[in-house]
Every structure is written in structure tokens, then in C-alpha cells.
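In this supplementary section we document a worked example of the pipeline. Step one takes a protein sequence of length 151 as its only input; no multiple sequence alignment statistics are reported here. Step two produces a three-dimensional model, which step three serialises into C-alpha cells for compact storage. The input and output of this example are shown verbatim.
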Amino acid sequence: MGAMSGYSFVSFRIGPIEIVNESGHVKVSVKRITGVLLLFKITYEWERYSEKHEEEIKKDQNLGMSSYIFENRKLFSLLYKKGLIIFLMRVFETLVPGGEVVDKNMSYLMAFFTYGYFGIIYQWIKYDFDETPEQIKAHIEDTILSAAKST
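The serialised model returned by step three reads:
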């Protein structure tokens, strides 16, 4: 499915030294290494979740993403509570499909929708997941429709 599809999380071992060597940086902070490993783990878990719920996600990717975040709400809440908003945005960028956008105007549009989507998810995390994934999906769809109507 993704770049890591052939790997087992248990058997894929990479240590801090390998990360430093691959990055080309002499000094890499523990925070950065932890961020890289968390990003890898969350991306890997999303791929596993996607494979397990493939039919549901094909029908409705917004609901699939919301359900995945809800299932992993302890981790996402922890990231929020520790003030790791930038890290949360980077995680979200990797989870939202889209790929490289060649057209500059299209890249602005994709950024608008990606970060608008993220904003709704962020508020959901901030409100301690007080709504269901289905309700969040409805918020996302309503927001996109509102934006489309105003243009």
C-alpha cells in the first residue's frame, strides 16, 4: 500500500545512529529522533489500519481517517497536550492523500483543504474527542461545502 508495506514494525529495526547517518547531520536531537520514530509508527499503523478496513476506506476516506484517529486518540491527545502541534501537522500531512502537486495554484488549494481538514481534527483532539468519527466527517463535509458555495 505505501512505502513501508513490506515491513513488519517488529522486524524493521533502525537505531538512532542510522537515523543520524541517513540524515547527514552530525547533531540530531533526541526530540527529532523521537519525532521521526513517531512519524514512522503512526504512518505504519495507518497503513495497517487502511489494509484492515480497506473496503470502508474506499467507500469513505474521511470517515476512515476520523475512525483511525479516534482509535488512536490516546496518542493524538498526548501529542496535543505536549504542545506538539507542528508534529501533529506533519503527521497529518503524511496521512492525507494527495501526492505532489505540480501546479502552484493547485498547491494553494490543496494546502487550504489539508489544513482546514487538519483544523477540524485538531479541534476534535482539543475537545477531547467529544464527538464520534461520523460527526467529525459531517463537520468536514459541511465545511468543504460551505467553502465551495462561497466561491
